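Course assignment 3, question 2. Fill in each field.
Student: A.L.
Task: Predict the tertiary structure for the chain below.
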Amino acid sequence: MGEQASDYHRGEMEIQEQLATYDLFMGMTKWGSLAIVAVLLLFIVWFCTPGGFMAGLISAVVTAVIGFVLLRDKPEQAH
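Answer field:
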């Protein structure tokens, strides 16, 4: 069993699939959360305030646009 441990060399394994899975999970979490917030805001303003559907739709769209601007991937700066 001591020989099996010596076969492992830290930092030599390909991790591209793990990185792709992590990036996909983080992206789905980020954009899914924004979608849930926008839909909840639409329904809350529509049904729980006298503003009605149009006020709910406007607030949901504004929230979605601001969220999109703040959450989008920024281009990496060259060093």
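Instructor remarks: DSSP finds three helices and no strands in the chain. The mean pLDDT is 89.
Grade: pending
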